[in-house]
Each structure stands twice: as structure tokens, then as C-alpha cells.
Amino acid sequence: NCQDQVQNKTNLYKQIFRLPALKYCKLSLDDSNQPELLPIATKEFSPIEHFILNSTDVLNDLNNLLSYVPHLNRLSIYSQYYSPTTQMQLYSAVLSHLTHVSLNRLDIPFDQLESMSRSLLNPIQVLHISNYSSAAYLNANRWQRLILSHIPHLRIFNILISYTLNWAENIVDFITMINKFNSLFWFKRQWFFEYYVDKKRDQNFLSFYSTNPYRKQYILYEEKDKNIHINNRKTIMNFVHQVEIRTEKVMINLQKYFPNVTELIIVFSSTEQSKNLLSNNLNNILPVNQLTKFVLRSYYDDFYKIIKLLQCIPNLHIFEIRCSTSFQDSNLISIQQSDAFRLISQTNKIQHMIIGYQCTLNEIKFLVNLCPQLQQFTIDKSDKNLESFLRCLLSNINERLNHLFLLCIASINQKETKILETLIKSEKLLNPCSLEIKYDSFDKKPIYGGKIDYE
Description:
This protein is of the alpha/beta class.
């Protein structure tokens, strides 16, 4: 596992493929604008069986790359975008051992996927795919022909399609097209799907995705799930590990239960929330005591409501706040004097906190007092007096967080890094041997999307 500046991708590939005992390889490469392509393998082959490739221009190299890995069993490709200048690729590599393929955000035309399926995907049994640009991926008849003709051994089909309609497209036409997934072909294979339409201003955003049992992430939307396969019995979603809730109403009478969920994301605002949300409604859809990660992406104007949320999640290890807040200092002081705050600060198991907004120093003090067991702390820097902010931050950390070993400060530039290093050295605010400081940027992922994991 290493990070370095790659000057020549072709040479890097050749060096990797010469490693005689390599079975697993994960590469993340930026577009190098390098005209030289990797030649097709003729004599040298790699023993790699599991290959993960993250690259912006992956299609240009894909066929030649795969010619070096004839023993490949699992292939995962993540591409941030598709270039319309990329020409249709012809695939000649033979991968007779390939069983699992994951194509994440590989926004290629469906024609290109069909070309890939004819040669590369024929033996696979598991396909995970996400696409964010092409309405052709919503065509059930086209998928049926492709699977029957080119992927006959497929047993798991996991799909996530997010599409933004333009002004000339009618959402009714798309729903009619999606409803064709409600046929015997899909039912016989136990492949079921749902869709959601989100209208913002003058645009419609359509999400179409697989349901039971393959998705590890599941989003509960504003309205009752529009399930293409109607089933009145409660569905047990064993494979789901992360649930995102966008409104409290969706939990009422929900015919799904998520027994293996460990991560919870809440996106609706505090004005919608009742006092007994987690203790009542949430317990009906997932085991709250099992949650180890909680992400808050909704606006809160009262931190006491957050304290109440944390009371219901006793085994929480990771706590993220990725939303703007409006907390009054007097409110924070009164909360810290409450019995609920004292109880939570003494009993919570939070070891990693991520603050994804520019909070005030008083809010940082509050959070530090709330979670004294922190080992990792990630924050966004303040736009105000940076030196004063950093001095106060480091001073509070030094006094309160005895277990902290990693501090990550996001959105900090080189000049500000020097200010921080000077503060640490000149004022001895931290023991440099006890704490590592990293300068990073927050992962700004879209609401819809994300990688689709293997089975």
C-alpha cells in the first residue's frame, strides 16, 4: 500500500505484472494524459486473481491490461467520468476464471457495455454496476437480451442508476420503461428493484436500484417505497450494512428490517423529528445497539437533540456531523450542565469524530468535552483568525483528549500548515511524539451514488 506520483503508467503496470506472487492488486491512478498505451501481453503474464482499478481513463487501457491477468477471478473498476472522445473498444482478452465484476460509475454508453459483455463478461456470475449518465441502462428489454445472450451464468445482478432528466424528457415515460422490470424474467431470478423520483426546482432526478438481497447501502426516501415487486410480508434485508434515512415518515409501517446494519445516516432536519424517533420508530427497522457509525447530514439548531440521539446509540465508535448548525453559546453551556450531557460524556464509546463544517471554537470545546475518549479527530478549519483558532484548538486537545493520536485538519493550505507547525514548536502546545497531524480534504460525495461493493 503506497502513494506516489506516477510519471509513466505503462512502466508501472509492467513492474506490477512481473511480481511473481501477487494475487491481489488495487491501483488508483489519475489521468496522466500519456499517449503511450500498454502493449498486449504475449509472453509475460501475472498471477493476479483480484484486480481493483480506479482511474479516469481506464477504458483506453482496459483490454490490454486484462491480457496480462488470465487467472483473474474478481475485477472492480471505478471511473470518475466517461470521455465522449473515447472510441468503442474491442475486447480480445480471455478471462475464463472471471466470476465477479463490479463497474462503479463507469459511465459508458450501453453499446460499449454490450461489446464488453460479448467477450469479457460471458463467464461471470456476479455483476455490480452503477451509472450516472445514460437512460439506456433503464431499458429492461435491452438488459434481458444482453443477459440471455452474453452473461448466461449470472446469478447476482446489482444495479444502481441515477439519471437527471432534461427539460424535454417526461418522467412518466421513464416510469413506464422501469415498470418493464416487473416481468417473469426478473421474478424467476429473484431480482427486484425500486425507484425514486426527486424533483428539485425544474429538474427531475431519477434513482433506480436493486433491492433484496444485494445492496449493502439502502436509502429510505420521503414517500413510501415504490417497490416494483409488491410483497406485503416484511422483507429481511440481510446484506445491508448502511441505511440512510431522508424523512422520519418513511419508517412508519415500513415493511423492511435491516438486521445487520452498523452505519446510520440521517438527512432530515430536526424540525421533522419527534422526541422518540430512535427509541421507537428506528428500533422497528434496525437494531440500534448494533450501530457503530452515525452520520448526521441535517440542519440542527439545538445540540440537545443530538445528545438525545446519542443516548440511543450506546456502542457508537464513529460520529460524523456533515451539516451547518446554528448553536447559541448559552445553549451549549446549559446543555453541558445537564445530567444527560454528563451521562453521555462518561459512557459514550466514540473514538473517531468528523466535523464536516466550519464550527466555532465553543462548538469544538463542547464536542471535545462530550467525547473525551477520542482517538481520531477530523475538523474543517475556521475562516476566522486562523492562528487564534489553532492555538485554542490545540490547547483544548492537549488538556482534554488524552487518548488522541491523530488530528486531521481539512481544507488547510501550505501557508496555514507552516503557521500550525510554528505554533506547535514555539509554544509546545502538543507533544509531537504522541500525535500525528495530517492535512487533508473532505470527501465530497454526491447524495446519490457511491461504490457498489462485492457480494
